[in-house]
């Protein structure tokens, strides 16, 4: 990342691709100066280090690198209780900032979410993100600057990041969920309440498109989805368990539905997001012999072939390959 100071991290499919793991690796390896989290509390980003596991709903996944300034984007939506809880858990008090213009998600929004038959049919996470964003659009939402508990964290995050870029600092813009859950580009109405694409991530953070150097799209080696809506190639739960693809959502504890990797979809989402680089996570789940591998050459031929096929069919170089849950279980092909 040394010659690519500003990178957007975007999920390719329906979320849960392993963005938390990829971001925590990059933060440690590249000594990232700023990490800006977008979106809201509905997304959980899993970070694992030395057997310790965090499912972060608010604190940026780059927290593992202790010199990284952690920010919540102006366009993000803050759950105050969850943020304070995670700041304590991750001990990041002195380096956590919340943009003054971020909006606030409250208990009443969660109740509205859970009691709406329409939203229940979509299978939302129940955190209230849709109803809270409705309020923001109506211009009646509370903002971070209105909340006394957030006072110690308030900042002009947009200025911080743009000034940082002016002086060559390294910035990660942390997307949440996946591109197929985008309000504009996903499988509407079975989507979340905002655009989840690379341009929207930069917009939420207040970073202009010409300042972004790389878009790193995160693919998982198979596809999962929680909630309702179409999932091409969906397998039964029994098949998924047999293949060891079955997962439970980190945030809500719901079963994740699963399907094999979809090359056509992978190609389409790479193009729309303008991806310049790719990460492919959980290779060890489809090829168990890859577990913990850190060198491309040590991979079995069929795993190498799969990575090559992803590259050939998406046109995106796969620079990072996930081979286990820990932040450092990764093959880094960037040099
Ligand atoms: P909402 O974002 O809670 O309104 O939920 C809308 C849809 O997006 C539902 O299908 C959720 O399961 C899905 N969704 C929201 N956040 C995430 C996430 O972080 N990972 C996976 N699915 C998500
Ligand atoms: Mg998740």
What does this 3D model show about the protein?
- The chain is an alpha/beta fold and 335 residues long.
- 30% of the residues lie in helices and 21% in strands.
- It is built from eleven helices and 17 strands.
- It has helices at residues 19-30, 80-90, 107-115, 117-122, 129-138, 157-166, 198-205, 237-243, 263-273, 283-286, 301-314; strands at 6-11, 34-37, 45-49, 52-56, 69-72, 77-78, 96-99, 103-104, 154-155, 171-174, 214-220, 222-225, 247-248, 255-260, 277-281, 318-322, 330-332.
- The strands form four sheets. It has a ten-stranded mixed β-sheet with strand order 9-7-5-2-10-1-11-15-16-17, sandwiched between helices.
- The longest helix is centred in the last third of the chain and has 14 residues, at 301-314.
- It is globular.
Q: Could you say which structural class the secondary elements and strand pairing correspond to?
A: alpha/beta
**SSE topology string:** EHEEEEEHEEHHHEHEHEEHEEHEHHEE
The average pLDDT score comes to 96
Largest sheet: 10 strands, mixed
Distinct ligands, ions and cofactors found in the model: inosinic acid, magnesium ion
Principal-axis shape equals globular
Number of strands: 17
Q: Order of strands across the widest beta sheet?
A: 9-7-5-2-10-1-11-15-16-17
Number of helices: 11
State Rg.
19 Å
Keywords:
21% strand, 335 residues, alpha/beta, 10-stranded mixed β-sheet, 17 strands
In short:
The protein is of the alpha/beta class and about 325 residues long. The chain has helices at about 20-30, 80-90, 105-115, 115-120, 130-140, 155-165, 200-205, 235-245, 265-275, 285, 300-315; strands at about 5-10, 35, 45-50, 50-55, 70, 75-80, 95-100, 105, 155, 170-175, 215-220, 220-225, 245-250, 255-260, 275-280, 320, 330.
């Amino acid at each position: 990342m040394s010659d690519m100071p500003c990178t957007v991290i975007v999920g390719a499919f329906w979320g849960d691709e392993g963005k938390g793991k990829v971001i925590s690796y990059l933060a440690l390896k590249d000594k990232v100066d700023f990490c800006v989290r977008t979106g809201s509390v509905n997304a959980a980003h899993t970070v694992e280090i030395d057997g310790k596991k965090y499912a972060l709903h608010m604190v940026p996944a780059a927290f593992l690198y202790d010199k990284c300034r952690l920010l919540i984007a102006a366009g993000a939506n803050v759950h105050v209780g969850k943020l304070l809880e995670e700041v304590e858990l991750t001990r990041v008090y002195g380096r956590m900032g919340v943009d003054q213009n971020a909006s606030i998600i409250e208990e009443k929004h969660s109740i509205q979410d859970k009691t709406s038959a329409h939203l229940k049919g979509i299978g939302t996470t129940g955190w209230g993100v849709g109803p809270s964003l409705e309020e923001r659009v109506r211009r009646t939402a509370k903002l971070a600057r209105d909340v006394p508990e957030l006072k110690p964290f308030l900042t002009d995050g947009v200025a911080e990041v743009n000034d940082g870029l002016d002086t060559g600092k390294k910035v990660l813009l942390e997307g949440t969920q996946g591109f197929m859950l985008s309000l504009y580009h996903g499988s509407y109405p079975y989507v979340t309440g905002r655009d989840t694409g690379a341009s929207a991530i930069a917009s939420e953070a207040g970073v202009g498109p010409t300042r972004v150097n790389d878009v790193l799209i995160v693919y998982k080696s198979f596809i999962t989805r929680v909630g309702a809506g179409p999932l091409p190639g969906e397998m039964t739960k029994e098949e998924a368990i047999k293949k060891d693809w079955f997962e439970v959502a980190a945030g809500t504890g719901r079963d994740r539905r699963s399907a094999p990797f979809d090359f056509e979809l992978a190609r389409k989402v790479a193009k729309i997001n303008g991806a310049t680089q790719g990460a492919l996570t959980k290779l060890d789940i489809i090829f168990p012999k890859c577990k913990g591998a850190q060198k491309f050459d040590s991979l079995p031929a069929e795993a190498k072939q799969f990575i090559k096929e992803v590259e050939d069919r998406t046109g995106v170089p796969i620079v990072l390959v996930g081979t286990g849950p820990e932040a450092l279980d990764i093959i880094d092909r960037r040099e």
